[in-house]
TrEMBL record:
Family of this protein: Belongs to the AHA1 family.
Protein name per the record: Activator of Hsp90 ATPase homologue 1/2-like C-terminal domain-containing protein
Pfam families the record matches: AHSA1 (PF08327)
Stretches of the chain forming a coiled coil according to its record: none
Length: 327
């Protein structure tokens, strides 16, 4: 975790985040100068940002929104006051409406970002200053401190070379808390090909099979927000096991970037979990990240104990040997 501290100073009306990275200043700066990289971490897990405007110069504007797993959008706006590459950015930081206009219900703050060299790489400091004590209390009550900690905890993956960071590491599962699990897998393939492999039934039936000895008997998906899907599998030949399936609803669809769905085992009595799958490409390597939100810790542990990670890795290896190798 790169974040070393998140502190509040009620007298100075500031919230300050400090993070250290084993990367040069220029590489950290590039993560903020390139909106496609910025989108990969600006927003806590489950609330990725989309920038549709990013004019990095004094007087320039940026407009973005964070999309929740339920599809709700939260808009923000920056007005760049100072830009001094590769060390400093100062912005007027506002909540906004869908058009990028300032939302007056939350006072505009001032955010100062600095990047300095250290003996081991770089230190990033972000100071968010509120105009009044009431405004500081308001943003803290909205969870800004923890949101910043979670968001910048993702920056190390953006700074790393994906080939070194994840390629060849297989499927990795991390327990984030009692109800959230993060699964990552990298592929040496373009994002558009991974998107097709996850959304086209004819392709999905070729690789999404888990361990050997199973076939996908049903693959149906109304690939629109609010549409439903249903997948089912059955053992082949002498393979032990009973047919099973999953079904759910599409909550968010951003082509070639993100799919959020509910997921319930067909006929099971427990409530559904929510799967949030994102795809990020850098230099020909695509990183899949799935954040799974479970209803409770009991269901989380029950599903992890099924060997889910091993089954996913078997499917991903089949995807690499087949569809991706033939492309």
């Amino acid at each position: 975790m790169p974040v070393t501290s998140v502190t509040t100073d009620p007298e100075a009306l500031t919230l300050t985040l400090v993070a250290d990275f084993p990367a040069p200043v220029e590489r950290v700066w590039d993560a903020f100068a390139d909106p496609r990289k910025l989108e990969r971490f600006w927003g806590p897990p489950g609330y990725p940002a989309t920038f549709d405007r990013y004019d990095l110069r004094p007087g320039g504007l940026a407009h973005y929104w964070m999309t929740s797993p339920e599809g709700e959008r939260f808009h923000g706006r920056w007005e760049f006051v100072e830009v001094a590459a590769p060390h400093r950015i100062v912005v007027l930081d506002s909540f906004a409406d869908s058009r990028g206009e300032v939302d007056p219900s939350v006072p505009t703050g001032r955010m100062t970002l600095t990047i300095e060299s250290t003996a081991t790489g770089s230190r990033l400091a972000i100071v968010s200053a509120s105009p009044t004590a009431e405004a500081l209390e308001q943003v803290l009550a909205m969870g800004q401190a923890e949101g910043m900690r979670q968001a910048f905890g993702q920056l190390d993956a953006v700074l790393a070379d994906l080939r070194e960071y994840a390629l060849g590491a297989g499927t990795r599962t991390e327990v984030l808390d009692d109800t959230h699990v993060r699964i990552t897998r990298a592929f040496e393939a373009p994002r558009h090909l991974l998107w097709r492999a996850h959304t086209e039934p004819d392709l999905m039936k070729k690789w999404l099979l888990g361990p050997d000895g199973w076939e996908m008997t049903v693959c149906e998906n109304d690939l629109v927000v609010g549409g439903s899907y249903r997948n089912a599998w059955a053992p082949v030949g002498d393979t032990a096991g009973e047919p099973f399936g999953f079904e759910g609803e599409n909550l968010v669809i951003e082509p070639e970037r993100r799919i959020v769905t509910t997921e319930r085992m067909t006929g099971a009595p427990f409530p559904p979990n929510v799967n949030d799958l994102t795809m990020d490409e850098d230099d020909g390597v695509t990183l899949l990240t799935m954040i799974i939100a479970y209803p409770d810790v009991t269901q989380r542990d029950m599903i992890l104990a099924t060997g889910m990670t091993d089954g996913m890795e078997a499917s991903y290896q089949r995807l690499e040997r087949g569809i991706l190798a033939d492309a």
